[in-house]
Amino acid sequence: MCEFFILTSLLLACTGEQKTDNAQYSDLSEFNQICGFFDALSNHPSIATLSGKEKNDFIMERLESLRPEGNAKLAWTLIRNFTPNEERYGMFKQGVESVIEQEWSCSSMEALAASSVDETSWHGAGTQPLTQNTVPMKGAVWEGVSEKEASKE
Amino acid sequence: MGVRENFNIIQNTSGTIAAIGLEKIGKAAAGNLVTPAIWALNAATKNSTPSVVDVGIYASGFVSAPAAITVSTVKALSDDSINRKVNEIRLQHEAKYRQFILPVQNYGHNAPFFVAQDIASNGGTVWQGQNHQWVYITDARGLLVPDFKPNNFRQAMQPTFPFELNKNNKFKFCSRTCRW
């Protein structure tokens, strides 16, 4: 009986690992699809004259075909907020490799990631107040907050 | 008479409750043994034996019990590892901040590196300890802190200063070039 449980547990542990492998495979497939979007962008007939916003829109339109809950769509959506632009590709690559646990590269993304930026989406630096979910160090509270007060926030 | 009329309800309910009870306290295998006990009772009181379907359902319970145990055991081991690493990072910071340093796994279910970026773009400070665990900090009210200065990190991210927000209320964030 004991052997049966051990064997079953091992079998199920392997199944769990298989699920992880499948998730990694799905993510890798979608990371490669994003690379394909950049390949397509690099072959665009007007690539030399496209604005940063137009390049960004080109990628974002195609991003809609990816799984909303997947790591790949989230990765590119977030990296658009990263600065400096020249380090975007490196950050994206680092994120991909942390998920797939192997080396990954995309030459077209490396060439175009820094310039595929919609600068018009940003408000001017320092002109906006913080969001309601954030507080700077000088206004932060580190003690003396009851659960009741915390729930009011 | 009442007992006889409601025999099936009583046996199924009590059997299920007994099995769930045993499984709740981690004795899933014992939970499976409840059913044969009821079969024995049936054989003694009504001279009935379990059908093929009964046996099939019973066997599937035996397969699912180790699954539940395996999944919960793996999760517990993973949680323990995360908690240990977060405690290591907490000890490298002032005591008043420690309880507010949290693993990024509390914030989202995607890969930790991307959850970390998500936190930074939502206005928080996030960093990876030397033990590779990503953490973030809130104040006592649960608010993200954009200008916290973490200690002894491999990598960190936070909103750029002066703060810049886009139309979706996401912060522009930095890593190597932030003012650490």
Strand content of chain B: 5-15%
- Helix content bin of chain B: 40-55%
* Structural class assignment of chain A: mainly alpha
Number of domains of chain B: 2
Got a strand count of chain B? 5
Low-confidence stretches of chain A: none
**Shape annotation of chain B:** elongated
Please state the oligomeric state of the protein chains shown: heterodimer
Distance, first to last CA of chain B: 79 Å
- C-alpha Rg of chain A, in Å? 22 Å
Order of helices and strands of chain B: HHHHHEHEEEE
What would you call the structural class of chain B? Answer: alpha+beta
Principal-axis shape of chain A equals globular
- End-to-end Cα distance of chain A, whole Å, is 54 Å
For the secondary structure, the number of strands of chain A is 0
Main β-sheet, spatial strand arrangement of chain B: 1-3-2-4-5
Question: Which strand-content bin applies to the residues of chain A?
Answer: under 5%
Number of helices of chain B: 6
* Mean model confidence by pLDDT of chain B: 79
Domains of chain A, number = 1
Architecture overview:
The complex is a heterodimer of chains A (153) and B (180). With 153 residues, chain A is an all-alpha fold. Helices cover 57% and strands 0% of the residues of chain A. Chain A is globular. The mean pLDDT of chain A is 85. Chain B has 2 domains: 4-90; 95-178, no CATH class. Chain B is 52% helix and 11% strand. Chain B has helices spanning 2-5, 7-24, 28-46, 52-90, 95-98, 112-121; strands at residues 101-103, 126-129, 134-137, 153-159, 173-174. In chain B, strands 1-3-2-4-5 form a 5-stranded antiparallel beta sheet, sandwiched between helices. In chain B, a hairpin with a 4-residue loop joins strand 2 and strand 3 (134-137). At the A-B interface, helix 1, helix 3 and helix 4 of A face helix 4, helix 6 and strand 5 of B.
